[in-house]
Write a structure and sequence with these properties.
It is built from 20 helices and 13 strands. The chain is of the alpha+beta class and 638 residues long. A five-stranded antiparallel beta sheet has the order 3-11-10-9-8, with no helix packed on it. The chain has a two-stranded parallel sheet with strand order 1-2. Helix 10 runs parallel beside helix 16 (437-459) and helix 15 runs antiparallel to helix 16 (437-459). The chain crosses the membrane at residues 66-85, 92-112, 118-137, 158-182, 194-211, 239-258, 264-283, 295-312, 340-361, 373-392, 404-424, 436-455, 608-626.
């Protein structure tokens, strides 16, 4: 072994006095990676709906596919690290791929308005790179923490506590910083959020590269993660590994695109994978009856975890829509970006984790069993949704609710997470036969992936009072037979009774060159007023000071004028951003089809949030009911 790879005895002695400095290298690397992931996640659905003009259902399903694949790829990335690369090379490779993915998203967000087709290609490519990079990064950095210490070292638990603190610091900072720069109300600013995430990931990679050789070492002073943990019999050329890496990244892009655009297959693939693994395990005659019983507990717990995380992960999807559109975020001097609410979970974890740790110690022998804690976590999750359902009950259209409801819900969700989350992986380790530990860990990751896919499908049921269905680039605004400046109209003191608009874009989802076609728009009806619902806040006349104040409270960033309706009055046309060369029309469906889930019609936000109350509540009650049996099976010896 090269002498440069061995620490001097005095360095080892110093490391033993506290935590090794390698822990803080891993802490910083993970913190910046989580900044990158959660910062991007905080604005992802907003970018899809506000810039790329995807509808909420499509954006939600795509969000679920993306986060589901994020949980799947570590299975492959961990295998490659163990067999061919080692931890450290995988961490650097994964970090670089994620940073590149964010830079590609920066390009996407820079071009969406002028080159939408190229922007869409960059969008899926960027997400694919981040999925691939996460697969290499995530499983390897966590495993290195324990390798810093001797196996029986009492500091390991404290080390993971410090490491997970880094995760939550990054999880709090990411949405805050990315939201500040990107979630401004102007879709053109989303690119700065992606750039901030790319810079954060770049910092993480630089920190790891600069300090890994000096500090990231095992208790004997040898470099950690330099060689594969379980190398194969045959050596593989590095060129082949890099080609495989390229193919893997391309595969991630393709899997995401196919699931989003062609056929939604991911949920069926996950179900088949879990069923296949279950058949393989429970037909294995070499396993004892006791081993199979304990394995059954893993499958049962994984099933209930599906309900928890599918509701919890609404944070990046439907709850972001709610924060953006239905939450009163105006403080008078500042409007809170909707993406900032995604920092709450990480902040609450930092605040309440010591409280829960103290509580479990204080209870001593009365500490609840693992299944009981999981049932309690589900119940707290249900109570969180009950808080926000109470907030929206009987609220009129266009009325926004206090931030207190959203903050309270996130507090309950964090308490539920602190009951449930720490248990899963340790339960799998305790109950798995040694020869099946990796396979059963795969089951756990598959369950989490499935939960995220389900989260997207549930978010797609988010009800809307009206749905924005198109945004057309149109010919210049015409008033009294001449094109006029939008600013003159916006500041006019005269009431404008009717607009004259003759042509619009043929392709409703593109602003690239295309043929223009006639659009028939009836004049705005007198019944359309500022108070009836969200769309009708906007009037074709100059607004009074009180009406302007209402728009400010509602979070409107620019003036819009009511253009008119279609003949059936089912669609409303809004004119905005007009000047002497171009105008933009937004089209809203005023009576969208109400979504359904398993025969349950979701008529409003109260119905939507009660769906999660019922789902998590029933799962909690059933889990409470079978807790004693699960505990008995876990401890079975014969």
């Amino acid at each position: 072994m090269d002498q440069s790879e061995i620490l001097k005895p005095e360095q080892l002695d110093n490391a033993q006095k506290g935590h090794p400095k390698g822990l803080y290298v891993l802490f910083a690397t993970e913190m910046w990676e989580r900044f990158n992931y959660y910062g991007m996640r905080a604005i992802l659905v907003l970018f899809m709906t506000k810039a790329l003009l995807f509808d909420k259902a499509f954006a939600s399903n795509l969000y679920g596919s993306y986060t589901g694949l994020v949980y799947l790829t570590p299975l492959i990335g961990g295998f490659i690290a163990d067999r061919y690369w080692g931890n450290r090379r995988s961490i650097v490779t994964g970090g670089i791929l994620m940073a590149l993915g964010e830079l590609i998203m920066f390009g996407c967000a820079s071009l969406y308005h002028t080159m939408p087709d190229i922007s869409t290609f960059l969008f899926f490519t960027g997400l694919g790179f981040m999925i691939s990079g996460n697969g290499f990064f995530k499983p390897n950095i966590s495993s290195m923490v324990g390798q810093l210490y001797p196996k029986s070292d009492r500091r390991i638990d404290a080390a993971y506590t410090i490491f997970y603190m880094g995760i939550n610091v990054g999880g709090a900072l990411g949405p805050f910083i990315c939201g500040y720069f990107g979630d401004t109300g102007n879709p053109a600013d989303f690119k700065w959020a992606f750039l901030a995430a790319a810079i954060a990931m770049g910092i993480g990679v630089i920190v790891f590269i600069n300090f890994r050789d000096k500090y990231v070492r095992d208790p004997n002073g040898a470099l950690l993660g330099l060689t594969p943990a379980n190398p194969g019999d045959k050596k593989v050329s590095p060129i082949l590994v890099y080609l495989g890496l390229f193919a893997f990244s391309a595969l991630c892009v393709g899997m995401l695109y196919i699931d989003a655009r062609i056929v939604s297959y991911l949920s069926y693939l996950l179900i088949l994978a879990v069923v296949g693994i279950a058949i393989m395990i429970f037909t294995d005659k070499t396993l004892s009856k006791i081993e199979k019983k304990k394995i059954s507990v893993i499958f049962i717990v994984a099933f209930f975890v599906l309900f928890f995380w599918s509701a919890f992960e609404q944070a990046g999807a439907s709850l972001t829509f709610f924060a953006e559109e239905q939450t009163q975020r105006n403080l008078g001097f500042f409007t809170v970006p909707s993406s900032w609410f995604q920092s709450l979970n990480s902040i609450f974890v930092v605040v309440f984790a010591p409280v829960f740790a103290w509580l479990w110690i204080k209870l001593g022998k009365r500490e609840p069993s693992a299944p009981t804690k999981m049932a309690l976590g589900l119940m707290l999750l249900a109570l969180g949704y009950l808080v926000i359902a109470t907030g929206v009950k009987d609220v009129g259209a266009g009325i926004k609710v206090s931030m207190i409801y959203l903050i309270g819900m996130y507090a309950f969700h964090t308490w539920g997470e602190l009951c449930l989350s720490p248990i899963g992986l340790s339960l799998v380790n305790k109950l798995s036969p040694l020869k099946l530990s990796s396979l059963l860990m795969a089951v756990w990751f598959l369950a989490n992936a499935g939960a995220n896919v389900l989260a997207g499908k549930l978010s797609s049921k988010y009800p809307e009072e009206e749905a924005k269905i198109a945004e057309y680039k149109v010919s210049p605004l015409v008033l009294t037979n001449s094109a006029i400046d939008w600013k003159l109209v916006a500041n006019s003191k005269k009431n404008i009774q009717q607009w004259d608009l003759s042509t619009v874009k043929k392709n409703s989802h593109s602003i690239s060159p295309d043929s223009l076609v006639a659009l028939s728009i009836a004049p705005a009806q007198q019944a359309v007023t500022i108070d009836t619902n969200k769309i009708n806040r906007i009037s074709p006349k100059k607004l009074s000071e009180s009406e302007v104040a209402k728009l400010a409270v509602a979070g409107e960033k620019e003036g819009k004028f009511l253009l008119g309706t279609n003949a059936a009055q089912t669609e409303v046309y809004i004119i905005k951003g007009s000047d002497q060369t171009a105008s933009v029309v937004e089209v809203y469906n005023m009576n969208p089809v109400k979504p359904t889930f398993l025969g349950y019609t979701i008529k409003n936000l109260y119905d939507f949030f009660m769906l999660f109350v019922v789902m998590a509540g029933i799962a909690s009650v059933i889990l409470f009911f079978i807790t004693k049996w699960l505990q008995k099976t876990m401890n079975a010896t014969s």
